[in-house]
Structures are given as structure tokens and as C-alpha cells.
């Protein structure tokens, strides 16, 4: 080959190599993005909930804009979206706006997460609940459908709920941030306990009992996210070191509050991920330095990271912990269910017990499974 043709060949090979590397980088990037959505389903144009989530975004953008434009959080009328052909109602708007402000949540960032052009994600839960679960695309906020009874229960107890979280800012209770009604569905917006979730190894839903508390784990290598239960956790421990005493007291405080609300069947979510070397034994800080408030409010050292309220660092692992599903009242029907289960599941523990027994049992579970 002549010199020019050899140079041309080298240039061609170089171009081909660059194109190959670019394609490989794109493939790996798409693979990483797909990995981040494991167990979740993007609500795209072909999804059954696509139109619903689009309306949610439009309505929520307008509702949050009302809070941004009116700092005193004046009571807003139901949102009318005439051009879009739907109406969305907001419940407890001023109270939730004030609560978000007290938590230091930026209304602008909150609005951006909930009304982003990126698609919502659907989470298919292995729980018995018939509710639909959506996540914002950044996985920071959960949206869950609820019954009218559950909505009424929370709204009637909203002052007590906010009071408890203001008294104990590091409470394990999930943070409810808003309630809305759209297309015959009621939605509650809450912070995700498992955020950020990229490195989580296992997730558990704990109720402190035995009956129906086993879930078949996902096959090895499966992409499905399975939330395991009490019996799956047996043989494991939560290694917290110095933070164990804080956790025991906070679980007591939170379950005492739930007992006063006469509720049961709530769950303690637990997940864990290994700590990197630079995360061990450091990056902790009090949210303020008033010692009297730290003691009275049972504050703790928080990790310096995103959404630290539900994170506890042990010597080797970071644990995600939060109490969810706070709406099951110990009604006459539940009392009858308790009597039936006493006969059906003799000598076994089950979830339908009195609020005082339920609270005591969950505290005992935490105490016996932490070191």
C-alpha cells in the first residue's frame, strides 16, 4: 500500500475505534440507568396510568405554586383545570405547606420533583394492599392511593401528627407532605424511606409477628425488588453500636403516639447497604447545637447525606428505617378479627392485636434484633 492509503486506513481504524467506544459508553450508560429502575416500571405513553399521572403533575404544579405565591399559605379553593378538562382537590393545603416549610423542604424543589417532565415510576408492591404506588422520577417522593376513610382519619389527626413531629424532629414516622383527590382517587404524598436507593441490598417490612410474615425471596440475579418480612429477617441483626439506645427510645416514643391514636398494623421498614470506607465513623452532625433541645427532642447525630432523617449508620452498614401505614384503627370489626385469629392461629403471633400489644411487641422486636 502507498503511504497515503496507509494513512487513510489508520484514520479509518481510528474513527471506527472512537465510534465503538462511544457506542459502548452509551450502552453502559443505558444499562446503568436501567439498573436504577430495577423492580420499577416507567409510566410512559402506553401505560394505563399515563393520563392520570400527567393530570397529577399539572394539578400538583398549580397547587404548589399557590403555596409559593402566598407565603402565609392562605386557604386555596379546589383547583380548576378547565383547559385540561379535570378538577383536582387539595386537602389540608396550608397545614401541609407549613409542615414542609418547617422541615426545610424547598417548595420550588418539591414542585420540580412532582411536576417534572420525566415520567413517574410505578412500584408493584408484594403487600396485600390494593393501593397503587407511584414514585417521582428522582425516587424522592412516593404517591399512594388511599380510601376515603383513611383520608378522613389523617386529616382529623393531622394537628396531632404534626405536633408529634415538631416535638420529635428525628421521629421514624413517615413524613406525609400532601393530600389530593383526582379522578375518583385519593392520593397521599410522602417522603420515600428508601432514598437514595442505588446501593440497597435488602428491604424488609416488619410487624413483629409470625402469621403470613414470610415472602419468597427473588431468585438470584432477578431484577424484581422484593420487600421481605419478619420471618425472612430471622438470623439477622441490626448493628448500630452507639445509636442503638437512641433507636430504642424513638421507637417507644413513636409507638406510644400511635397507641394513643388507637391504630395498629403499621410497619417498620428496614433496609441496609454497606458503608464505603470514607463513610465510616464520620460525616455526622447535630441539626442544631442546643443541648436542651437535643435531649428533650431525642435528637441524634445525622449522616451528612441526602434525606438523612430515615438513615442510621452503624459500624459497617447504613440502615434505612421508617414507620409507615398508620391508618388502621382498632375498630369493632378489628376486635372481631382479633377474636377469630385467636382461635384460628392458636399459639402463633399475628398482626391484629390491640394497639397497646402491637406497640409493645414492635418495641420488643427492635430490642431483640439490634446490637
Automatic annotation (TrEMBL):
What domain of life is recorded for the organism? Answer: Eukaryota
Q: Name one Pfam family in it.
A: PIP5K
Q: Recite the UniProt keywords alphabetically.
A: ATP-binding, Kinase, Nucleotide-binding, Transferase
Q: Does the keyword Isomerase apply?
A: no
PROSITE patterns the UniProt entry points to: PIPK
Which GO terms of the molecular function aspect are on file?
1-phosphatidylinositol-4-phosphate 5-kinase activity; ATP binding
Q: Which residues form a coiled coil?
A: none
Which GO terms are recorded in the biological process aspect for this UniProt protein?
negative regulation of cell migration; negative regulation of mitochondrial membrane potential; negative regulation of phosphatidylinositol 3-kinase/protein kinase B signal transduction; phosphatidylinositol phosphate biosynthetic process; positive regulation of apoptotic process
Using the record's annotation, list all stretches that form the PIPK domain. Answer: 19-370
Is ATP-binding among this UniProt entry's keywords? yes
Protein name as it appears in the record: Phosphatidylinositol-4-phosphate 5-kinase like 1
Native species of this protein?
Terrapene triunguis (Three-toed box turtle)
Amino acid at each position: 500500500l502507498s503511504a497515503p492509503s496507509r494513512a487513510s486506513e489508520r484514520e479509518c481504524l481510528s474513527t471506527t475505534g472512537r465510534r465503538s467506544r462511544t457506542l459502548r459508553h452509551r450502552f453502559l450508560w443505558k444499562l446503568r440507568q436501567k439498573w436504577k429502575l430495577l423492580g420499577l416500571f416507567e409510566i410512559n405513553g402506553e401505560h394505563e396510568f399515563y393520563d392520570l399521572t400527567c393530570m397529577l403533575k399539572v394539578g400538583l404544579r398549580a397547587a404548589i405554586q399557590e403555596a409559593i405565591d402566598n407565603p402565609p399559605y392562605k386557604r386555596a379553593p379546589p383547583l380548576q383545570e378547565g383547559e385540561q378538562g379535570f378538577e383536582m382537590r387539595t386537602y389540608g393545603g396550608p397545614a401541609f405547606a407549613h409542615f414542609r416549610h418547617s422541615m426545610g423542604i424547598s417548595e420550588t424543589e418539591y414542585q420540580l420533583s412532582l411536576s417534572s417532565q420525566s415520567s413517574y415510576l410505578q412500584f408493584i408492591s408484594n403487600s396485600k394492599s390494593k393501593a397503587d404506588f407511584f414514585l417521582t422520577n428522582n425516587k424522592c417522593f412516593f404517591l399512594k392511593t388511599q380510601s376515603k376513610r383513611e383520608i378522613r382519619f389523617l386529616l382529623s389527626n393531622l394537628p396531632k401528627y404534626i405536633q408529634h413531629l415538631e416535638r420529635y424532629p428525628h421521629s421514624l414516622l413517615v413524613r406525609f407532605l400532601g393530600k389530593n383527590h383526582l379522578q375518583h382517587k385519593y392520593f397521599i404524598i410522602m417522603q420515600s424511606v428508601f432514598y437514595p436507593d442505588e446501593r440497597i441490598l435488602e428491604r424488609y417490612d416488619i410487624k413483629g409477628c409470625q402469621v403470613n410474615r414470610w415472602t419468597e425471596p427473588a431468585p438470584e440475579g432477578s431484577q424484581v425488588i422484593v420487600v421481605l418480612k419478619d420471618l425472612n429477617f430471622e438470623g439477622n441483626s441490626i448493628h448500630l453500636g452507639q445509636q442503638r439506645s437512641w433507636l430504642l427510645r424513638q421507637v417507644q416514643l413513636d409507638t406510644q403516639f400511635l397507641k394513643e391514636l388507637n391504630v395498629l398494623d403499621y410497619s417498620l421498614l428496614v433496609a441496609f447497604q454497606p458503608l464505603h470506607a470514607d463513610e465510616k465513623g464520620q460525616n455526622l452532625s447535630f441539626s442544631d447545637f442546643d443541648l436542651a433541645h437535643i435531649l428533650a427532642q431525642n435528637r441524634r447525630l445525622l449522616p451528612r447525606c441526602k434525606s438523612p432523617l430515615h438513615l442510621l449508620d452503624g459500624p459497617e452498614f447504613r440502615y434505612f428505617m421508617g414507620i409507615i401505614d398508620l391508618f388502621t384503627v382498632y375498630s369493632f370489626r378489628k376486635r372481631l378479627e382479633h377474636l377469630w385469629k385467636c382461635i384460628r392461629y392458636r399459639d402463633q403471633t399475628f398482626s391484629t392485636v390491640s394497639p397497646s400489644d402491637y406497640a409493645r411487641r414492635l418495641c420488643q422486636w427492635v430490642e431483640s434484633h439490634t446490637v
